[in-house]
Amino acid sequence: HNRQVIRMIVKGIKDGKIRAGVSPSAVLRIIFGAIEHAMLAPIIFNRPVDVDRLTDEICGVIFDGISEKQG
Fold first, then answer.
1. How many whole angstroms separate alpha carbon 50 and alpha carbon 42?
2. Alpha carbon of residue 52 to chain centroid
3. DSSP alpha helices (H): ranges in the chain?
4. What are the pLDDT digits (tens) for 51-60?
5. Strand ranges, E, within 1-71
6. Which residues 6+ apart lie within 8 Å of 48 measured at CB?
7. pLDDT digits (tens, 9 = 90+) for 4-23
């Protein structure tokens, strides 16, 4: 599955949807690391997870960044 995600990231770079110069492997680690970290406590402690909210939060940070948009 890593190769498939890398291919999607590379395609996003080629299509101009992801900034050129971004390391596909770094993006992969960031995505999977965020998912793993977000899911660890719910799995260990058998807590419910709002998958849609979690997906929106992770994608928002990854694709929109954390800095304020400048005018």
1. 10
2. 13
3. 2-14, 24-44, 51-64
4. 999 999 999 9
5. none
6. 42
7. 999 999 999 999 999 999 99
